[in-house]
Amino acid sequence: MSIRQLRTLVAIADGGSFNAAAQRLYITQSAVSMQMKALEVDMRAKLFDRASRPPVLNARGWRLVDEARQIIERYDALRLLASTSTAGLTGSLRLGVIPSVATHLLPQTLSRLRADHASLRIQVQSGLSPELAFKVESKALDVAIVTELERLDPAIVFEPISKEELKVVIHNDLARGSIADLLRAHPFIRFDPAMGVGRLIDATLRERRMPVNDFMEFDSIETMVRMVKLKLGVAIIPVGLFSFGSADELRSIPFNPPVHRRIGVVARRGMIDAPTVRAVTDAFEFFATASRTAAQVRSRKKQ
């Protein structure tokens, strides 16, 4: 049995056929067939129902697929560990980030990683949390920074790195009454509901039976805050990574009880403790903590 055979077995399971696996692995279909026959000899068991055309995995084959995934993950993690040098990490890492993290944490995190691990090449792409989690699951990404999702595939894990409180933000000149009063009286500037934080806000409003007057929809905290500064409406945003700076004209009002969103790392189970993934996680967590602490200090000074 070889790791190549196990990768081919998993590719058949994911693609649905020998032909699909061959295309994914850039080999011929006959090579796929030969590898699977050799694997069946090693396992001393039939893994496919060859009475079907094309052959399909039988129950024993599917059980082996689950174990093969774990073996492949551990093998890849060991290869990363072996490539680690005392002078810093090497190799490449595919990283996904949600837009708010790309704006407020990514630049300083990449700068630190480059200083500590000059030979580590990091490829970055931005996206929404469900999309990034799917890419981690399908191995299109190695790790992603996302808003915590309600459901995750068993093959991947979530490790929190930061917690942000959701607050109602409105111009001081308009801040009269309760949160419910403000949401009824003023146009609501909402997050795109496709975003994790947008879904969390919508769920909070439903649970607390707070109707709103939809006005605008954005995927950028900065844009929403600019709209609020111009007295165009009221918004609910996560406060922590984002700083209002010297925006004394704005008031942020917490929910009671408070509502939080958690940001964290998603990676495949066998990769979460790989040195490259751990280095990225630690760097993001460091700057998230620093950003949150600075925001708390500014808030106390304004009180």
Automatic annotation (TrEMBL):
Per UniProt, the keywords (alphabetical) are: DNA-binding, Transcription, Transcription regulation
Which Pfam families would you find in this protein's record? Answer: HTH_1, LysR_substrate
Transcription regulation in keyword set: yes
Q: Does the keyword Oxidoreductase apply?
A: no
Q: Which domain of life is it from?
A: Bacteria
Note the Gene3D superfamilies from the entry: Periplasmic binding protein-like II (3.40.190.10), Winged helix-like DNA-binding domain superfamily/Winged helix DNA-binding domain (1.10.10.10)
Domain HTH lysR-type per the UniProt entry, residue ranges: 1-58
The GO cellular component terms are:
cytosol
Q: List the GO molecular function terms.
A: DNA binding; DNA-binding transcription factor activity
Instruction: Please give the family membership noted in the entry.
Output: Belongs to the LysR transcriptional regulatory family.
Q: What does this protein do?
A: NodD regulates the expression of the nodABCFE genes which encode other nodulation proteins. NodD is also a negative regulator of its own expression. Binds flavonoids as inducers.
Q: What is this protein called?
A: DNA-binding transcriptional LysR family regulator
